[in-house]
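Researcher: Quick sanity check before group meeting.
Model: Go ahead. Protein one:
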Amino acid sequence: MVSTLTISYLFPKFIEAEEIIRIISWAAIPMTIQATHYLPKLWAQEKNLLILYHTIVVVITQIIAIILFGTLYGAVGLAIAFLTTSIIGCSFIAVLDKIDQRKKE
């Protein structure tokens, strides 16, 4: 919140960036979860195929979201696409991890 107010004060021509920064900052949560919990765990277990599936889903989702949200909402739509892709990627890797754990049992 403070950073967006600072941006509008220092750079008054970039008012639209405030909303984009707010949206993109929410993506830090799922990205941190997958980068600190799921991906290192799968790398350590040498589950490279699961990481490949995750990456393919994230890339396809990112392309579709950019096309959909970017054309509908412009720059804010691109930020929404980034957030959506982060959430879907984290959810997908969590589901893959649960499925993999159940296979072990």
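Researcher: Fine. The other one?
Model: Protein two, sequence then structure:
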Amino acid sequence: MEKTVKALIYFDGQYYCAKCFEIDVFTQGKTLDEAIKNLKEAVALHLEGVNPADYGLSKNPTLLIMMEEELTRSMIIKHQPRRPHRTNLTETGSLRCTKSDSERSLPTPRR
């Protein structure tokens, strides 16, 4: 059983779109924060009142959000990654965010 519901957020030119891989959830927002908020709400509503095992998920799955972004050369040089966040979905449908213990950094580009 999967412990994580994986989701991808991407910008389509007008909205930030979010879609899950394990469950049939798609949402969007005008800002990245709005898209993340909508995604958490949509996943919680989708799993409300159902057995997560029906979707191959553990009892209290977390939400792993990845973002697809086109990088320019200047962004690659200046980029400082943010720590990934996981969201725990409880039985009541409430959400709890926790920071991941691991943090990756990009190698410094050679000039």
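Researcher: One line on it for the slide.
Model: Strands lie at 2-11, 16-20, 26-29, 57-68, 85-89, 95-99.
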